[in-house]
Amino acid sequence: MDRYSGGRDGRICAWDLHLPQTGKPSVSDDREPSGQTPRTRRTTLRWQIWPHIHWVNDIALIPDGTALVSASSDLNVKLWPHPYSQTGAHTLGQHADYVKRIASPPAGAPGANQWIASGGLDRKIHVWDLGGKGSILEIDTGAEGVRQKRSVYALAVGPNMIASGGPDRIVTLWDPRSGKKINSLIGHTDMIRDVMVSASADTLVSASSDTTVKVWSTQNYRCTHTLAMHESSVWSLYSDERDLRTFYSGDRSGLVAKTRISFNYEQTDDTCSIGMCREDEGVVGLVAHRDHIWTATSRSSIVRWPDGGSAMVAFPESSYLDLSMAPRLSCMSNGSGSGSGVPPLHSVPEETIEGVNGVVRSCLLKDRHNVLTVDTAGEVAMWDILQVRECCILD
């Protein structure tokens, strides 16, 4: 099966994971002639495209999987009608500033394969028609408040709502048909970094730079859980369950937690969280599928970790994280917290998909045909732009 990634080089890649099909593995799935097993098979590149001239900030498949949509700092939102093809790119439209997030309706929602939403630093949410009609709805998130604090850094779509968040510390719910505000969820004390909405739109999960993850009931617009398993800003969320009962979260310190929540709001003893793994840098994106977790940081590599199974009771007690706020209060000044003393379940990844270092600075020399560059590893090189080749690497 394929998965997709987008990077700061403006490129989108499709990867063949070489995982067995769902259901009971066959003999051929268990072990190949080379001796590889599902856990040791290496991910391979299927195809790649360069649809953008700036960072790819977010990508999303529409529910039926027949199109891929990308959002970029080049201000464009682009559609690829056939993810397995390198042709057929179509620009849905533009924002006036960096486009940070893309979100599609859940499978089964009315019109789920007909539109997609994007949010940007221009404080706008656009609903784009996938048939080529452009923006069919524009929501100005700054219309009711201080505009400079209304940039959209988090975006999610339910069957009857759009949820957004950003520096204003508020999760705002919008009607995707009229663009009117439905309600606001207030409780975080720092920037909203990510948000998810359940398929039935009755549950919402938000992640914040205040180091907490909050679970909200959208039926009465109240917070049902405040989870403090992280010690630093929570940057990313992921769940493949329609009710969001089990979800993953990644933070600035690199910790990835797997959390299962109880929907019995009078009894939360069944809510628990496991420290799954720890990256070397902050986790800006993560995906889980069956027995694997993929993490992305500011580095150009993607790392695959073992998940360990769906039953939370199967994990050792030493990897359980403290969900309460109390242990964090005396430690916030030095950056440690509830997860600092808990070793993650996995310390060694299954696979690292190696990327290449990207250029972060450049300078055209006086001769007008040589350029000095500095990449993400700090390496300085000189390039001949007329010959389109690297001249030398400077110590």
Describe what this molecule looks like in 3D:
The chain is mostly beta strands. It folds into two domains: 2-357, YVTN repeat-like/Quinoprotein amine dehydrogenase (Methylamine Dehydrogenase, Chain H, 7 Propeller); 358-395, no CATH class. The protein is built from two helices and 31 strands. A hairpin with a 7-residue loop joins strand 20 (234-238) and strand 21.
Q: Quick gist of this model?
A:
The chain has 395 residues and is mainly beta. The chain contains two helices and 31 strands.
Spatial extent as radius of gyration: 22 Å
Biggest sheet details: 4 strands, antiparallel
| Uncertain parts | 23-35, 327-338
* Percent of residues in helices: under 10%
Topology:
Layout: E1 2-6, E2 12-16, H1 27-30, E3 44-49, E4 56-61, E5 68-72, E6 76-80, E7 90-94, E8 99-103, E9 115-120, E10 124-129, E11 134-140, E12 154-157, E13 162-165, E14 170-174, E15 181-186, E16 192-197, E17 203-208, E18 213-217, E19 222-227, E20 234-238, E21 246-251, E22 255-260, E23 272-278, E24 285-289, E25 292-296, E26 302-306, H2 326-329, E27 351-353, E28 359-364, E29 370-375, E30 380-384, E31 389-394
